Amino acid sequence: MKATAATIAAVQRPDGGIPWQTGGHLDPWNHIEAAMGLDVAGLHAEAEAAYGWLARNQRPDGSWAAEYRGDEISLSTMDTNFTAYAAVGVRHHFLLSGDHSFVERLWPTVDRALDAVVRRQQPSGAIPWRTDPGVRLIAGCSSIHHALTQASALASELSQERPHWESSARSLRTALVGEPDLFAVKPHAMDWYYPILGSVVTGSVAAERIAGGWDRFVEPGLGVRCVDHEPWATGGETAELALTLAARGDRTRAAELLDCVTRLRHDDGSYWTGYQFSDQEFWPDERTTWTAGAVLLATAALEGDPATCTVFGEQVPDRDAREGHPQGL
Q: Taking residues 24-42, what's their average pLDDT?
C-alpha cells in the first residue's frame, strides 16, 4: 500500500491537485478517489492537501468544473456526481484522522457542494448528469445518493442538521428503484454495482443484483469488464466491486477480485487502467492515480479498516424506502 500511495503522491501537484497522471487532466471525482487512497495508506498530509485544493477551487455556486488542466479549467460544465463526492472524501478523512479542525474548515465546502447538487434535483427525484436535463445516469445518481448519506452523517456529527439532504436522498432512491425509464440504459459495469455501493438497494435485493450481473461482467481470473461487450477488464471497476463486497462482509469474492488486479500492477506500485484480454495488452497506455486509489480503498476494506467500511458499507435506508420498488433497477 505504501508503494502504491507513493506513486499517487509523486503525481500530486504542489497545490494539492491530483491529476490522472503526470501532466494529465484532473477531475474532482477521481481527485477525491486518489486522495482517499493516500489516506488509507497513511499519507494524511497529502490527502489533506488534496481537500485543500477542493476548497480553494470551489466555484461560488458550490460546484467544481468537470475538468482542469494545470491552473486552467478545460471543461467548465458541472458534473453533479463529481461535485457531490466531496462529502464522501471529507467524511472518510475525518473518520480516519479524527481531526475536528479539518472537518470544521471543510464543512462549508461540503455544505455548498451538496446544496449545489440538490438544487438540480428534478420533481421526479432524479438528478441530471450535467446541463442536459434529460440525461440521468444510474451510476452517477447512485454515487450522489451515497454522497448524500455521507453528507447527512457528517452534518449530524457536527450538529449541523440538513433534513433536506435526507429528503433528497429518499426521493433520489425512489426514482432509481421505481422509475427506471428516467435513466439512460448503458452497458457499463458501474450501472450494475453502483446502486449497491451507493446503498440504493440493500440486503437481499442487493445480493440478488450482484448474482444477476456476475456472469455478465466478471471475467474469471481477469476481473470486471468495464462494458459487457468488450474484452477489457479494468482496475477501477474491479477494485470498486471488491470494495463493495468487502465493505459488506463478502471477503472471499473481494479477495479474489483483488488478486485479479495484481496483473495490472507495475513494478513501482502504480496500476495500469485496464487489460485488453483479446489482444493481451495493457490498454490504454496509462497508469492512473484513481485506479491506484480504488485499489487502496478496496484493500483497506478487505483488511477491515473501520473508516473505509463505515463510509462504503451498507447504509440502511428507512422503512418506507426499503418497501419501495426494487424491480426498477
A: 98
DSSP for 33-102, written as a single string: HHHHHHHHTT-HHHHHHHHHHHHHH--TTS---SEEETTEEEE-S--HHHHHTHHHHHHHHHHHH--HHH
β-strand partners of 271: 265
Phi-psi region of 140 (alpha: psi -120 to 50; beta: other; left: phi over 0): alpha
Q: Is 250 exposed, middle or buried (0-12, 13-18, 19+ CB in 10 A)?
A: middle
Identify the helix (H) or strand (E) that includes residue 137.
Answer: none
Can you give the pTM of this predicted structure?
0.96
pLDDT digit string, tens, across residues 71-92: 999 999 999 999 999 999 999 9
Name the CA radius of gyration of the chain, rounded.
18
pLDDT score, position 315: 85
Q: Which of 276, 241, 277, 282 is CA-nearest to residue 259?
A: 241
Which set of grid coordinates corresponds to residue 285? 497506455
pLDDT at 328: 60
CB-count exposure of residue 146 (10 Å: 0-12, 13-18, 19+): buried
- Looking only at the bridges linking them, the beta strands covering 232-234 and 218-219 are unpaired
